[in-house]
Amino acid sequence: MTTRLRAPRRLAARLTATATVSVLALSLAACGGTTKDSSSASGEGKAGGNATADPNAPLKKGLKIAFLPKQVNNPYETIVDNAGIAAAKEFGAEAKEVGPSDASASSQVSYINTLIQQQHDAILIAANDENAVCGPLKQAMAKDIKIVAYDSDTNPECRDVFINQASSEEIGRSQVKLLAEQIDHKGEIAILSATANATNQNTWIEFMKEELKKPEYADMKLVKVAYGDDNDQKSFQQTQGLLQAYPNLKGIISPTTVGIAAAARYISGSEYKGKVVLTGLGTPDQMRKFIKNDTVESFALWDPKDLGYLSAYAAAALASGQITGKQGEKLKAGKLGERTIGANGEIILGPPTVFDAENIDEYHF
């Protein structure tokens, strides 16, 4: 999808008006083998290092880049990575996706080590754990391999830039606003997250908690944050457990595409349909049937294809010397136009879009 996503009337103004803020990024040895020349290594541990950008430098041909998602069987991550791989063809790069089938903290480490050995020019990673991947990523940077975090950040010292799908504050706060409208700002609520150590999830949840401190949410109470580990069956079971443990539960926020789909599947076939509100982050294709059968009224997301596309161009720009990751530099991102690099090397894609019965059939991803 090449067009910018637009938010429906109810939340558009608030979503787009939210100030853009930098993500609160949180924060193994690699194996040996033939390495890349390290004369321009960026391993000092700061976004951009001491390198100087040449914005007029052409994108190099034949770059080798690899996408390392949280898990390769996650439908959302597949959309992102496939779009990035397709974008790489535009600038003559060789791109691939590699990764674990589970989203455990250390599952990505061996893949980073292998990509170092294979002398890739750039590694793009959606981090499962900000600490577990940091050591090997720093070793990759010391060998002049550029590191792009996307979707879920690592420590800023362990990558060159972070492609953030939207302002983390905007995502977290807008999720609470979306749920609150549907439950009249009253009742017990729960959050069904992915893994307990996922950087993006935890950052969003912190902003959700901050939003809930406002006076307008005085009659709403967060009773539980549950974790489905981005596993369909576990998320399904966690939803069931939440509804049984909290009989007065009025709503659930699931800021993960796996979690919201599993929760919707459980609720749609249970006595809770029409009684418990579900919202969160999902793709239109996976959630369409739940919108149409009235299990879910609305949910949000950005365009994952654009996220993959922007990430690929960032990797190429870094590897070609167009950018270094310093604040204020401009990234030229093909059909998406220009993006300015913010504090801590953060590049923001744009505001999330709310999907409901009025607009969901306009989107297919």
Give the H and E element order.
HEHEHEHEEHEHEHEHEHEHEEEE
Q: What is Rg?
A: 20 Å
**What's the pLDDT, averaged over the residues?**
88
Q: Provide the CATH superfamily of the largest domain.
A: Response regulator
With strands numbered from the N-terminus, the spatial order across the biggest sheet is: 2-1-3-4-5-13
Helical coverage, percent range? 25-40%
Counted by DSSP, the helix tally is 10
Q: What structural class do you assign from the helix and strand content?
A: alpha/beta
Alpha-carbon distance between the two ends: 8 Å
**Morphology call:** elongated
Say what the CATH topology of the largest domain is. Rossmann fold
What does this structure look like?
It is a single chain. The chain has helices spanning 9-17, 75-90, 109-117, 134-142, 168-182, 199-212, 232-245, 257-268, 284-292, 304-320; strands at residues 64-68, 94-97, 122-125, 146-150, 161-164, 187-193, 220-227, 249-254, 277-280, 298-301, 330-332, 338-340, 346-348, 353-356. The chain is of the alpha/beta class. It has two domains: 23-37 and 55-166 and 303-341, Response regulator (Rossmann fold), CATH 3.40.50; 168-301, Response regulator (Rossmann fold, 3-Layer(aba) Sandwich), CATH 3.40.50.2300. Helix 2 (75-90) links the parallel strand 1 and strand 2. Helix 3 (109-117) runs parallel beside helix 4 and helix 7 packs across helix 8 (257-268). The N and C termini lie close together (8 Å).
Topology:
Blueprint: H1 9-17, E1 64-68, H2 75-90, E2 94-97, H3 109-117, E3 122-125, H4 134-142, E4 146-150, E5 161-164, H5 168-182, E6 187-193, H6 199-212, E7 220-227, H7 232-245, E8 249-254, H8 257-268, E9 277-280, H9 284-292, E10 298-301, H10 304-320, E11 330-332, E12 338-340, E13 346-348, E14 353-356
Parallel strand pairs: 1-2, 1-3, 3-4, 4-5, 5-13, 6-7, 6-8, 8-9
Antiparallel strand pairs: 10-14, 11-12
Helix pairs in contact: 2-10, 3-4, 5-6, 7-8
